[in-house]
Amino acid sequence: MALTLYVDTARWRAHQQNVFQQFPGIVPVCKGNGYGFGHERLAEETARLGADTLAVGTTYEAARMKDFFSGDLLVLTPFRRGEEPVPLPDRVVRSVSSVDGVYALVNARVVIEVMSSMKRHGIAEEELPKLHAAIENVRLEGFAIHLPLDRTDGLDSVEEVIGWMDRLRAARLPLHTMFVSHLKAEDLGRLRRQFPQTRFRARIGTRLWLGDHDSTEYRGSVLDVIRVAKGDRFGYRQQKAASDGHLVVVAGGTSHGVGLEAPKALHGVMPRAKGVARAGLATVNRNLSPFFWAGKQRWFAEPPHMQVSILFVPGDVAPPQVGDELVAHLRHTTTQVDRTVDREEP
Questions:
Q1: How many Cβ atoms are within 10 Å of 125's Cβ, its own excluded?
Q2: pTM confidence score
Q3: Which of 79, 84, 231, 253 has the lowest CB atom count within 10 Å?
Q4: DSSP state, residue 217
């Protein structure tokens, strides 16, 4: 009995191929929990695609992934002087976002991140002249720019990249390779036409692995079904059942990421109103679970446990049976499954 990620493998890989063809020179990204699939699986898929480089989040991830992927590994978290040393092979490329960081990585392979409108990290324009001396003692793999997902200011992402290309060229820095994030295929086409001597490489994770939502599905196995009457006490906190119904114990708890949710940026009146409504219900211990039964999203009977969740199914709905599986809508990047099952075409 498990929380399972089912994958329509043929459809999932067809989507990967489509993205791979749209973005020549793509650098697949595998970080965090491996987008719900795990590091080893995504390393295998990256090799299957024929990509020569795989991007990871941290040096610790690179240390694990080196045993699963034989190509280059690009660490996205920028190097900082004084960080804990992690033994890594020469095929690991470090991102750097400061002149000091470049000086500290003598003989290393580096990608230098420039400061974008994300304002997260990167070399500032006024620091570019200092890079001439700094890059003499490293193996420069290229520059990189990480762009925001939403452009609420109306600015053009391509124009932002062009602006940085012009600054780097004016500073007489090498422009043989530029790594980019969050650009469309047509955007890259514009950049390639304007800068034919530069190789643009898109770092892509979510669009590559999770772009076809219908190719994956989470399901939790039903472990127990217990009838309760109105007023019966149950659970860790011995709450009273608000009405007759059934408690459904399903695989998937906090250790799997069930009940955990990343904060969302809300835009518009309706999403904000729904957010306020959910917060109000939560104050009286009413929280919707990610599990569905009989066409509806079911309420948690109490907060999820470590490995299971307890749902409440009202008395006028036929309950599931032990061994049934309930569909769950879970966020891939915060979910750890017990198993992944490939559904191959017959």
A1: 14
A2: 0.89
A3: 84
A4: E
